[in-house]
Amino acid sequence: MKRTCRVFISHSANRAEEPATQAFLDAVIARLQAAPGLEALADQKDLQGGDEWLQRLYAWMGLCDAAVIVLSPRAVVRENSSWVPRESSLLLWRKALDPRFVVIPVLVGGLQPAQLAGNPFIADLRLADLQFAGGLSDDAKIDAIVAALQARLAAGVARLVFDPVRVHVQDCLQRFAPDDSVTATLAQHFGAEVWQPYAVPRQNLSLKMVRAAAQADAVDAVIADVTLGSQGDARLGARLFEALYPMRLPADSACALLTLLRRQEGQGAVLVNTNDTWAVRMLLRAATGLPKDDLLRTWQLVELPDGWGDDDQNEITRYLAAELAEAALGTGGWELLSEHPEPAVRLAEQLSALAEQLLEARRETGAPIVVCARYTQRWTELAGSLAARFPTAVFLFWTGDTLPPAQAASAECAPLEPACAGGADRRWQINYRRKLKQLGGTGP
């Protein structure tokens, strides 16, 4: 479904008193309606006879994605002109709560910037802090407005980092949380907050829970309250806890890990002081904002058994190729890549076909395959050559509670900085499992 940017237009145009301003308004509406993805909300265009116009205007201002404030002499200079200042105040309040909300003021009808100071309601709003739609002509100003709104629309298509986990939380609340529990939880835990987004209760609560997820005690209390009255077999508490848990892990380590994995793709390895890959997955979820299933679909983690790094490099390359083929194509994927009877030719064809499939998988998922193994000196020696052989993969070696001395690792191996506290990953996993079990969940 195509995204639409709903644009509220605040104005005081009147065909009899300000025909030039009215002509400007008509032109703005026409241009917005003609632009793909933009929808103009203006009282002259959309209000119908019998509408409760004040409630409709407030609803538009609360639910629009952007706003244009048309500042004309009638809106600013005329005595007792309060509608545009009042609407401007509400729109700028929305911008204060959400900096992504776009407000574009524009001067028309010969109004000069200095005249804004003459209206105390307008002057107090500090509209001068915003970027005005500039241009010598009305057409140039309209061009600037449309360009800014199209940029807002394009930016809106890219998801926020934590949108996937928020949507997952909202879906859980929608399916399993009783209405009364949602309402009571919002009032008890977030009722006094200034930030109250324009959203239905379950969406509102999901936003609040994601914002509070780094505060373990606070979000655990919210989970306990919102699950009151839910069906036990739905395991709502376990679902919410499992989804939000990664966000309480150290954000600096999580973001550093994500950055290193992308930087070392096709270059070498990342060294992480954990005792297995459980914490790696959790830190990746914390950095990407992806729920568990979404992470598994996007980030393939191939775990190699102990001892592989001791083999001959040619054997390691062949075994690793087979594992990567299975990760990309499923069970038996390596055999599918060639059926040539001559072993040497078959291996060459398999490696060539695998390179194509891994490149396609990389384009589709947007993430490299992460090859994980227990750290050994031998693996660090092989990291550079194996990364060059499989350029859409990155190697990750977990080292236990501490990272090896810098001189023990090769130049192709980058340690996680800041490192996790020694033994932290085991404490995280123990606490996670205990709490998940209490909430009716199972598994790591």
Helix and strand topology:
Elements: E1 5-10, H1 19-34, E2 38-41, H2 43-46, H3 53-63, E3 66-71, H4 73-76, H5 83-97, E4 102-107, H6 120-123, H7 138-157, H8 163-176, H9 179-190, H10 201-211, H11 216-226, H12 236-244, H13 251-263, E5 269-272, H14 278-288, H15 292-298, E6 301-303, H16 313-329, H17 333-336, H18 343-365, E7 369-374, H19 377-389, E8 393-398, E9 413-415, H20 424-438
Parallel strand pairs: 1-2, 1-3, 3-4, 5-8, 5-9, 6-7, 7-8
How does this model look, in words?
This protein has 444 residues and is of the alpha/beta class. 53% of the residues lie in helices and 10% in strands. The strands form two sheets. The protein has a five-stranded parallel beta sheet with strand order 6-7-8-5-9, sandwiched between helices. A four-stranded parallel beta sheet has the order 2-1-3-4, sandwiched between helices. It is elongated and about 90 Å long.
Fill in the keyword field for this structure:
single chain; four-stranded parallel β-sheet; Rossmann fold; 10% strand; 53% helix; five-stranded parallel β-sheet; alpha/beta; 9 strands; 3 domains; 444 residues
